[in-house]
Amino acid sequence: MDLFDAVTTTAQGVPAPLASAPLAVRMRPRTLDEVAGQEHLLVPGSPLRRLVEPAAPGSARAQPSSVVLWGPPGTGKTTLAYLVAQGSGRRFVELSAVTAGVKDVRAVIEDARRRLAGDGTETVLFIDEVHRFSKSQQDALLPSVENRWVTLVAATTENPSFSVNSPLLSRSLLLTLRPLGTEDVRRLVRRAVTDERGLGGAVVLADDAEEQLLRLSGGDARKALTVLEAAAGAVLPGEPGQEGPVPVDLAAVERAVDVAAVRYDRDGDQHYDVISAFIKSLRGSDVDAALHYLARMVAAGEDPRFIARRIVIAASEEVAMADPSALQTAVAAAQAVALLGMPEGAIVLAQAVVHVASAPKSNASYTGLNRALADVRAGRAGPVPAHLRDAHYAGAQALGHGQGYRYAHDEPHAVARQQYLPDDLVGSRYYEPSDRGYERQVAERLVRVRQLLGRDAGGGPAGGPGGDSEAEGPRG
After folding, report:
1. Is the N or the C terminus of the chain less surrounded, counting Cβ atoms within 10 Å?
2. Is 103 helix (H, G, I), strand (E, B) or coil?
């Protein structure tokens, strides 16, 4: 690959965009004051302002820092990188992590070193979508960042904790960009309609069209301006001569974009946020929210087998004995999805989601397991009682194995009164059923069974007689 296929370079600062450039590029803020949103990063004296704004005459400019910009699409990451170069007058080099390789990275860094040693020219290296760089490519950046050969500005839509190497992240200032609010995007859209860099008042945006545009953009400024440009292009005459601004109505906006893109990345941070919200909605019995997050995953092309597995887990972890049939539904859904595939499999997933979300909830069996695990991990196991040990091999009876064992089906109610737990754990109670759904019947039966076993008195919910060993809580 030719280096110039991956790199955009300017001798000093950032050039003005061409008149033929996309509207989102032409309307890119020229100063920090034009940046929409991100007020938390733009307060006076903030690291970002010190990096962007030129130093006062006669004052020593602070040494440049390398920055990782993390935020959703269309929140201004590229804009801030341009402003860093433009405000400081440093040479600007843009490199795309989608197309660049280690060779390209090293070539840019070597050129920056020569310029810095030669005439003192400083370089801002902007790497878009840095999360797409491999570990070796990110490692190639470390010397240049550590020795300040370049001011690295790296942009990512994914959580840097997962997508950026720790050594590189520790040498950079992490700035988190927040999603733009509706009013932030509205100001950008209105500026683009009237500003000479944009549409210059050639169109007027109807109120309902503006609201639809803002809804479709989902806080993504680039998307809002792209849709606006497409809608304006559809109504503006091909030949000059029409007087006054041309109206852009709701129909024009809807023609410009068919469906709002789902902001969800199967390999990125949105993946973890959406599946977390999905699980918590199932647990919280909010059927509508659970279906919403299911729809987001389905629309984004999430692996339906992954979704089905999460529903199966929720059926046991969140519902369990409060409605044992929820697990049957979830397992059947997982099998049906494997049989049907998509899109029909989504119907089956929806049925399972409704069952699990609407079912009574109990994590008693899961909590009971955690209590038992806490005792085992603490070393409170003890020998298996002799009468419960395997007596089917030669010599077992001579060791007393199986002697005195009472066969449950020979006893009244099929409950044999004998010791089952090891000596150190006699009296321990791990499973404490709730009073919800079918588990209420289980609780009533357990009272009678424990009486028959002679375990109706004493024994706390964990850790032996009256014990209180710490148990793990339900997973988040």
Report:
1. C
2. helix
Q: Model confidence at 327, in pLDDT bands (50, 70, 90)?
A: very high
Question: Which token pair is 106?
Answer: 């090293």
Classify residue 297 by burial, with Cβ atoms within 10 Å: 0-12, 13-18, 19+: buried
Which two three-digit tokens encode residue 307?
């979704």
Distance from C-alpha of 456 to C-alpha of 223, rounded to nearest angstrom: 66
Give 182's contacts (C-beta < 8 A, 6+ positions apart): 214, 219
CB atoms within 10 A of CB 8: 13
Distance of CA 324 to the CA centre of its chain: 31
What pLDDT is stored for residue 469 in this prediction?
35
For residue 238, pLDDT beyond 50: yes
Q: Contact, 408 vs 416, CB < 8 A?
A: yes
Tokens of 459: 């024994």
CA distance 231 to 38: 28
The one-letter amino acid code at 450 reads R
Which residue is it, tokens 């659970």?
A: 290
Please tell me the predicted confidence (pLDDT) of residue 462.
42
Tell me the backbone φ, ψ of residue 348, rounded to 5 degrees: -65, -40
- Calculate ∠ Cα 212-216-220, nearest 5°: 125
What are the φ/ψ torsions at residue 190 (nearest 5 degrees)? -65, -35
Q: Could you tell me the domains of the chain?
A: 3-55+64-176 (3.40.50.300), 182-256 (1.10.8.60), 269-358 (1.20.272.10)
